[in-house]
Amino acid sequence: MTKKTVCSMALVAALILCVQSALAQTYAGPPKPAIQDYGPFTNSTFKGSHNTTRHAPNGECGNPAGHCLFYGGDFVSYPLGPSTLPNGLANETTTLISGSPYGAAVWVPFTVPANQTWEVTGLFTNNFSSYGVLDQYPTAPTSAALWSINEGVGAGDPGTIIASGTAAATITATGRSDFSFDEYTVQVTGLSFVLTGGEYWLSVVPLCTNVDDPFCGGVFFLTDAEYLNTTPANAVGPAEPLDSSFFDSPFFGLTFDPSNGSVGACAGFGCDAFSAGVLGSHI
Q: Do 7 and 70 sit in the same domain of this protein?
């Protein structure tokens, strides 16, 4: 029995090393912030979303009358060639992409209408991930996700923090996949703060920093939710402002860099809007 157990452990370790080796062969050179940078992805490689079944965290964004105040919409897949491919932007703190307070974070804009007041109870982002694994809270050295709501964000400017923290998070497969990754919803709940009318930016950054966990060497990319001014599927609430997202990363040496545009973090390949949302209620 002991011998079989040792052999099984050795097999698992070998499989992990093989997966990591395959990723290393796919991703030539040092890590880069955008998923498009790991290409080139051809039309034959980019097969589009394999499952368009609606997924919503805890079902809350599947019902407009429920608890979803804002959702930018599902990942949009259009395999029309390298110049028009959707994208994803690094959004993580892992043993591969490290840093303080995070390795890389995407800040997604949303608007609270002037005549409304929102009580926020949760936030989420949809991310392509190589493994879909987070640190286990609260026993791990860090919690599972870092979250924040800021206002007044601009190029090179983090603005003002309205509310932020680290918290336990759930990670749930959406059923969508692309770029050889599966997509996962990383969600934090149990929050309690109020937002009045105005424009804000949210971030939910997956954490996997356990050096003894080989899966924490994986990657997370916050997924696109807009393509050539189309309306993303299943969007909820006020439309996400286009071309207003920012990328901040100590690891990549960028400070609140616009995500879109030829000189933005995604170098002109998508990243005009992202798949993220706010949970709560009107008060």
A: no
